């Protein structure tokens, strides 16, 4: 898979991810932990069917023998699945999304600290600009509507995501051959559903709610999360996190158009800064890819560059 195709698919992933906020605003009876339970349960069911069809009876044994890194990633997915939906029921969609947008900065820092990956200057600049836009949005939204507890719950998402992107990058670029990372998504869904069920009882979701939550479980979680595991073999962790910030802009837009949660002028300005940072980073990456090489200089293939963590981060971030 080329870098450009991976970027396009990651944008599709963010489009699917961004639908959660607006869909939850149209639920009739399901609330808080029940929303989390049903979404994670439908996610787990879809993953069991998909992975079971591809792997057959061996799936259960693979789950039992899953190595440590798979379980670490699974726990990260569980935190992300659970904290995100609970936070959405406690504060505005914009508050949750702008808090999640701390992810690129945390991912870049974790990649540098724990994986010793160098990042190009353009990616650091893009992260700073995007973070400034998020800070602008956050300051306005938080000052206007409160929701401190919901914001604190939402903080669990970028923290878990930063750890997860680092694990996915470590495994996806061949630095550890033991990871079967699609299993991690299934483990995360099962843990999230199991933890939420006792807190969700008694269940009150209507058939209308179950239909919406089933759609979220399959198309907002299972499909894009499996896809992002594949993309982690091509894109560096900080770039995955940076591209994921489109979810912030799209999520606020859908909540505005589909649920009447009007974004403020500060949210619009902050979102424009995020988009500018993303577009600038990808444009500079595209120029670097297409720039003619000096005569006699050998081209480096993606496969060979991935064996070196630092060259991978510089060429792909």
From TrEMBL:
InterPro entries assigned: EamA_dom (IPR000620), EmrE-like (IPR037185)
Keywords: Membrane, Transmembrane, Transmembrane helix
Pfam families found in the cross-reference section: EamA (PF00892)
SUPFAM superfamilies, per database record: Multidrug resistance efflux transporter EmrE (SSF103481)
Domain EamA: residue ranges: 6-138, 149-279
Record region (Disordered): 293-317
Segments crossing the lipid bilayer: 37-56, 68-90, 96-115, 122-139, 145-171, 183-204, 210-229, 241-259, 265-284
Record protein name field: DMT family transporter
Organism: Roseateles violae
Lineage: Bacteria, Pseudomonadati, Pseudomonadota, Betaproteobacteria, Burkholderiales
